[in-house]
Design brief:
The protein has helices at about 15-25, 30-40, 45-55, 65-75, 75-105, 120, 135-150, 150-160, 165-170, 180-195, 195-205; strands spanning about 5-10, 25-30, 110-115, 130-135, 175. Strands 2-3-1-4-5 form a five-stranded parallel β-sheet, sandwiched between helices. The two termini are about 15 Å apart. It folds into two domains: about 1-25 and about 110-205, Rossmann fold (3-Layer(aba) Sandwich), CATH 3.40.50.300; about 40-110. The protein has about 210 residues and is α/β, with parallel strands linked by helices. The chain is about 60% helix and about 10% strand. The protein is globular, with a radius of gyration of 18 Å.
Length: about 210
């Protein structure tokens, strides 16, 4: 019942890897989706965000104004810390519930936690394997501009706001090089899946 953490910087191809692992039969738990769900209208998390940052963080219908919240905390380490103190415990609890649910349904399941902020928030959790999607910063910056419509300055700021690539690579058991074609990335994921038990065994041996 391996519990695998999958992480990577913005525009690193992490979603492509998660999708391929799901095709192989992995149960993928998406941290970003959990974040959106715990911040849904009427939730304690959303109420706490409004208390901490003001009612202007909410749309008229009571939903979170993600753009306003992002603007309020971007580049402000103390504001980010306050926000994380509200959101992270709820995400941790809900992700743990989903892991348990998946393993209860199938004790032999491979559960993959697709989590952007692994280094920042979850690095010490009991992962059986840590997989890092990696492409050089210039490649990811180009993707943000060409595929997501950001300006070069916006893309550079997004990359600069994340932990350095070295911090993710330092904790990796497996690195998927996503700088090439999608087919090349998928081939590496297929190879990972075929040798997953060996990777997990090696990590356990080092523990």
């Amino acid at each position: 019942m391996p519990l695998v953490a999958l992480t990577g910087g913005i525009a690193s191809g992490k979603s492509t890897i998660a999708g391929r692992l799901a095709e192989h039969g992995a149960v993928v738990v998406d941290a970003d989706r959990i974040v959106r769900e715990v911040q849904s209208p009427g939730s304690p998390v959303l109420a706490a965000i409004a208390d901490a940052f003001g009612e202007r963080m909410l749309h008229p219908d009571g939903s979170l104004d993600r753009a306003a919240l992002g603007a309020a905390v971007f580049g402000d380490e103390s504001a980010i810390a306050r926000l994380n103190a509200i959101v992270h415990p709820a995400v941790r609890a809900e992700s743990a519930r989903r892991f348990s649910e998946a393993f209860a349904a199938d004790p032999d399941a491979v559960v993959v936690y697709d989590v952007p902020l692994l280094v920042e928030a979850r690095v010490d959790d009991p992962w059986e394997l840590v997989v890092v999607a990696h492409a050089p910063a210039e490649v990811r910056e180009r993707r943000l501009v060409e595929l997501r419509g950001l300006t070069p300055a916006e893309a550079e700021a997004r990359l600069a706001s994340q932990v350095p690539d070295e911090a993710r690579l330092r904790i990796a058991d497996v690195v998927i090089d996503t700088a090439g074609t999608i087919d090349d990335t998928l081939r590496q994921v297929d190879e990972l899946w075929a040798s997953l038990s060996d990777h997990v065994a090696r990590r356990r041996a080092r523990a």
